[in-house]
Amino acid sequence: MNAATTATNTVTSGRALAGQAPGLLHEDAGEGRGQGIALIALAAALVAAPFLVYPVFVMKLLCFALFACAFNLLLGFGGLLSIGHALFFGFASYTSAHASKAWGLTPELSIAAGTLVAAALGLLVGSLAIRRQGIYLAMITLALAQMGYFVALQAPFTGGEDGIQGVPRGALLGVLDVSSDFSLYWLVAGLFMAGILCMRRIVHSPFGQVLKAIRDNEPRMVSLGYKVDRYKLLVFVLSAALSGLAGAMKALVFQFASLVDVYWTMSGEVILMTLIGGVGTILGPIVGAAVIVSAQSYLSSLGAWVVVAQGAIFVACVVLFRKGIVGTLADRLGRPL
Amino acid sequence: MATVFGIPLAVLFGQVLIGLINGAFYAILSLGLAVIFGLLNIINFAHGALYMAGAFTAWILLNHAGIGFWGALVLAPLIVGLAGVVIERLLLSRIYRLDHLYGLLLTFGLALMITGLFRVGFGSSGLPYPAPAELSGGTNLGFMFLPNYRGFVVAASILVCLGTWFVIERTRIGAYLRAATEDPDLVQTFGINVPLLITLTYAAGVALAAFAGVLAAPIYSVNPGMGQDLIIVVFAVVVIGSMGSIAGAVVTGFALGVVEGLAKVAWPEASSTVIFVIMAVVLLLKPQGLFGKVS
Fold it and tell me: Same domain for B269 and B202?
């Protein structure tokens, strides 16, 4: 029986991961109390974190968590799988690093520049990718991102194999010095929280409702007169821009931008974070990013085995644990998270 | 010496040959992807990793069992095909009812695992693999010098593609395969073992990838990363040609290899991106792909 059921379906991109299995959607019950409580807890944890944990580690985690949430906006709510999100993350990282170092821009301006570049790339890649659906869309995003990787490898301003090193953090608005880890932390944490709340707003807005409807049944939304391509493109751009915000912040945190951030393995990592935390949940990608970033730093001594472990977790998530950590938890609690 | 646009003809033909060889690998890999996708509805991201596994199997056979190129050309596809059977039965068969994207994610994880394992075992640097002695040296064709092994690779690839086409279009098992691609339920009711057919199709698809890997071993150094960058280009090839037809996949593969080779002469910096640019242009002009049908 196995292949029989899927083979006859003409699957459109609308019926993507989150929409497929019943019970996987948690956000549809409205802005649940569980989610609100969890967000307040998150904000409290953000305030306490730099006093308890090494701030650079927390900032790294926040950058990846925001990146994963941005990716999840596209996959979990738009039903579009991109395997090219490293392009937006990496080029935003290059842009903010270059803007800070070569142009001497203040941190808020260089982060804005990175975010804008990512949004522009999102518009470019998105308008090409949404011309096809489902797995083709995924392959197109991967191919275009790989093209971006080759451009980054050869373009003069990225520094090629060396990357951009020694990026100054500067002073916020030209007055507030953020060169210390502790002071930069508050900027990163503030932008992270703003990004999360922005995504929550998008998901629960009328736009978000239409988006989820397109994900679940695209032909129906077409017949109802919605211009589905516009919605897909807009969510693509939003997701790219927020990924860019994460990448731009990462460049300032590590004072470094490199090819690692534009390579396809980075696109894979963000998918893994989202998958392990829970596709289509607001908080899942944050948990997933925490798991993966922590695992990477604790297991870094294992060297090449880390990639093997990542692959194994990937496979295990798809075969056995498709709802992810937060998705499973939300099911137990019976409310959206 | 004769020149075209200021480029010596010998250089031009040399690049066309390199292009044909790359195109041969694009063609064999996209052919395997298309056959697997037709029946399983899974885009096999692990295809590049299994191509790499084929090359490594040849290397291991040579260095640990003393089996040379010709033996490896038969054995490596069989061994990797067997691994394909295990992958399909153990993992892929569990997710056919789910959205196609899960198949992509699962095989993505598999690709990471396989690549990582070879990296653990053999390191990241390349290992040399000698071309078979029978095919050493080259032939002077008058207008260019053709290394014998490279000529063999192009010929063998074309033969394999033709063979695959013949099996699918002209034999009974191929007819079953095409029927099951159209409507697996109906084919099953006729008493044909569709799950077995699916397993064999996956195994055959990855065996093709391993065959390409063995062919590639003497040309490129055998290293764990050799498959991953290649498979991304093959994805672009598949988007350009669409996976609807076998002939389409093969023709697109060879053609794009040659275009890439020529780009290397005309504008070397762009040679790594030219296929992606072509993909973007095709998406703008004919979104369903050159050989795709409008759905």
Answer: no
